[in-house]
Amino acid sequence: MNILTVEKLRKKYPGFLLDGISFAVPEGEIMGLIGRNGAGKTTTLRCLLNLVHPDSGEISFFGLPFGENEWEIKQKIGFVSGGVDYYPRKKLGLITRVTKSFYRDWDDSAYRRYLSLFKLSEDKNPSELSDGMKVKYSLALALSHKAKFLILDEPTSGLDPVSREELLDIFLTLTRDEGVSILFSTHITSDLEKCADSITYLREGKIPFTGNIKKFQNGYRLVTFPGETPPESTAELIGLKREKEGFSALIPADAPVPSGAMMEPADLDSIMVHMEKVC
Hints:
The chain contains 9 helices and 14 strands. It is of the alpha/beta class. The strands form 3 sheets. Strands 6-7-8-3-9-10 form a 6-stranded mixed beta sheet, with helices on both faces. Strands 2-1-4-5 form a 4-stranded antiparallel beta sheet, with helices on one face. The chain has a 4-stranded antiparallel beta sheet with strand order 12-13-11-14.
């Protein structure tokens, strides 16, 4: 079963078009939403949450069309952003009391459990929290109304490596132990390599790939060429670019290794950088 199904979603702005994209998030999985700035990630998430109205297309959560079931669906999903700013001087306890009034299935015992797990105090206000603790508080609110699907918008942005690892551990625990599904938008692709099952890659409002993350990575190899003279360009070389020492490019995994090149596996960062270079 797919927790989220998006079919032919289209939204046009002056100078930008989200061009009929389709993808699905399977139940119990983490999907990464990747792409450079301006690719359409934020527009996609806003359409999913009905913060902007798409021009056309279909969005379904839990097998239910979003348009006719928005209130019911929003009881089961949570939104977490690394950039959320709560009322900075209000106590967390007050913010929670307001928030829980919107949810019929609020679970105080779960909320207290997450406060303890995340080492949060209701006597603090958001201005006293680090960025990582703000994300954890957002997670506590989302999970306390029994959200089964989390939409995360850059949740690890600006966090130190230790805090990022702590959050990734939490995401994995939620999916593996509690059956929560996650759509995870990020520029930090190394985070996705540690926790995601699949990715959806947005490029200029279109989706060149959606599916298993390993399948995407295994479709390419990174080749590097020493020296100051670039290699002769061929159809196999994708996104040839200069490096500190020599040049690099992607090649399809089944292509022969060019003469004089060294080959290694391609990570998500390398794939995106070289593919964006040929846009």
